[in-house]
């Protein structure tokens, strides 16, 4: 086992003699076999191999293995976006008439997907405050609860979730904990080490880091006991896939195999080989970039905290943060590059500040190597009413600053001149 920065570079792909040194882009939807019998074995999951890119592709496979290694899981599945990963992570174990518990401190798109689309499809959701006590959380479980969903470090409210508390409750009720680990990445937090069973990411963010590809991933820890009597989809034959019994045939990789053979087959939200190639380039420098994002963000947060034009600053790396202690526990080496803050004068002052920025660009994005800034209440979270915004920890004056990896002095002087213009 190598250190994580070495894993970023080398895991997932070992070229043989005369093969490309770099993970190649296999831009082909189909793969050739000499006999129908050989092809049939692949369909029956009796042999490993590729036959159609909607299900698997060599470029994707290498990147999936790398991300599984980074998170410490048994397998991973790339998806066409983070949204697709979130959706499939839940749909893999939950259908109409069943129930999910979700933290309110989640990305706005996740909230929309759950609150609107999945509820319209008949899945019931209970949203809980991330600061809930274990006893209170226990009361939210129902007979038909199938999983608990949280974000390690929420976008954009930067709430650090107490993973052990949520994992403990989920396991007491015989269901898995799914964790969206997009913001810290496995460089700063590996949720499986704190009891999470499934991890998801928007790879569009730090994993790529250059803002060149949209993608997602689901990673399976292999630790959840799908044979505990609550999940017949793993212990009874899947008639739509040749009667396979996932927990019997695939053991620890049951969840991630079913995600592919069932959901990716049916939904088809597959990543493209070209995007997987770009994602891999990003992953190679992930450890280096996260270190710089975090050290820059801490400097920026300290600068903002001491500036008279700001009303408040939220960065879990700051000692003043209510999440500092949880951040120290779950992400002792750093959290992420995102800092949120409010300027005195509310919404109008926030807009003036943003218009005055020169180096930082206004973009609907975070986790890019270029510093960028966004006003969530008028963009990513605009579908929420004031009550929902409050529950998600997004105030109308909140500015989300995604600190890049430029020289920190240049970032701070840009912020400084824009603050002076307010
Ligand atoms: N999860 C988190 C924490 C996010 O920040 C995002 C996007 O911002 C998503 C999921 C959705 O990812 P994507 O935009 O790749 O669909």
TrEMBL record:
**Gene3D superfamilies, per database record:** Aspartate Aminotransferase, domain 1 (3.90.1150.10), Type I PLP-dependent aspartate aminotransferase-like (Major domain) (3.40.640.10)
Signal peptide position in this chain? Answer: none
Matching entries from InterPro entries are given as: Cys/Met-Metab_PyrdxlP-dep_enz (IPR000277), OAc-hSer/O-AcSer_sulfhydrylase (IPR006235), PyrdxlP-dep_Trfase (IPR015424), PyrdxlP-dep_Trfase_major (IPR015421), PyrdxlP-dep_Trfase_small (IPR015422)
Q: Name one GO biological process term.
A: cysteine biosynthetic process from serine
Superkingdom of origin organism: Bacteria
Molecular function terms, GO-annotated: cysteine synthase activity; O-acetylhomoserine aminocarboxypropyltransferase activity; pyridoxal phosphate binding
Its keywords, alphabetically, are: Pyridoxal phosphate, Transferase
Could you confirm whether the keyword Transferase appears in this record?
A: yes
This protein's GO cellular component annotations are: cytoplasm
Which cofactor names does the annotation list?
Answer: pyridoxal 5'-phosphate
Give residue numbers for the modification (N6-(pyridoxal phosphate)lysine): 205
Q: Name one Pfam family in it.
A: Cys_Met_Meta_PP
**Which family does the UniProt entry place this protein in?**
Belongs to the trans-sulfuration enzymes family.
What PANTHER family does its record include? HOMOCYSTEINE/CYSTEINE SYNTHASE, O-ACETYLHOMOSERINE SULFHYDRYLASE
Q: Give the protein name, as stated in the record.
A: O-acetylhomoserine aminocarboxypropyltransferase/cysteine synthase
- Species name for this entry? Candidatus Gallacutalibacter pullicola
């Amino acid at each position: 086992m190598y250190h994580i920065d070495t894993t970023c570079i080398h895991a997932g792909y070992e070229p043989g003699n005369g093969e490309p040194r770099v993970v190649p882009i296999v831009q082909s939807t189909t793969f050739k076999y000499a006999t129908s019998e050989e092809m049939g074995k692949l369909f029956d999951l009796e042999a490993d191999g590729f036959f159609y890119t909607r299900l698997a592709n060599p470029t994707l496979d290498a990147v999936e293995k790398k991300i599984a290694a980074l998170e410490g899981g048994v397998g991973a599945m790339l998806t066409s976006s983070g949204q697709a990963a979130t959706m499939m992570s839940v749909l893999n174990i939950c259908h109409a008439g069943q129930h999910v518990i979700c933290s309110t401190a989640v990305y706005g798109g996740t909230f929309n997907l759950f609150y609107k689309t999945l509820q319209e499809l008949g899945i019931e959701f209970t949203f809980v405050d991330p600061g809930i006590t274990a006893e209170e959380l226990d009361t939210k479980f129902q007979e038909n609860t199938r999983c608990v969903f949280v974000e390690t470090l929420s976008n954009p409210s930067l709430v650090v979730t107490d993973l052990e508390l949520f994992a403990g409750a989920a396991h007491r009720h015989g269901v898995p904990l799914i964790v969206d680990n997009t913001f810290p990445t496995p460089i700063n937090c590996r949720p499986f080490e704190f009891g999470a069973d499934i991890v998801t990411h928007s790879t569009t963010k730090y994993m790529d880091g250059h803002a060149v590809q949209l993608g997602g991933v689901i990673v399976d820890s292999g630790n959840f006991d799908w044979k505990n009597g609550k999940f017949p989809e793993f212990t009874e034959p899947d008639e739509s896939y040749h009667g396979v019994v996932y927990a019997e045939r695939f053991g620890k990789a049951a969840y991630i195999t079913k995600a592919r053979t069932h959901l990716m087959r049916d939904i088809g939200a597959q990543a493209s080989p070209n995007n997987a190639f770009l994602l891999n380039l990003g992953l190679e420098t992930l450890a280096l970039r996260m270190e710089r994002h975090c050290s820059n963000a801490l400097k920026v947060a300290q600068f903002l905290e001491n500036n008279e034009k700001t009303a408040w600053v939220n960065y879990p790396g700051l000692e003043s943060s209510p999440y500092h202690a949880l951040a120290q526990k779950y992400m002792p080496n750093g959290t992420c590059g995102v800092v949120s803050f409010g300027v005195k004068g509310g919404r109008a002052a926030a807009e003036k500040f943003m218009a005055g920025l020169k180096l930082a660009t206004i973009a609907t994005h975070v986790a890019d190597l270029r510093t960028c800034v966004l006003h969530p209440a008028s963009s990513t979270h605009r579908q929420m009413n004031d009550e929902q915004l409050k529950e998600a920890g997004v105030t109308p004056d909140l500015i989300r600053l995604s600190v890049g990896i430029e020289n920190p002095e240049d970032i701070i002087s840009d912020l400084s001149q824009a603050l002076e213009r307010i």
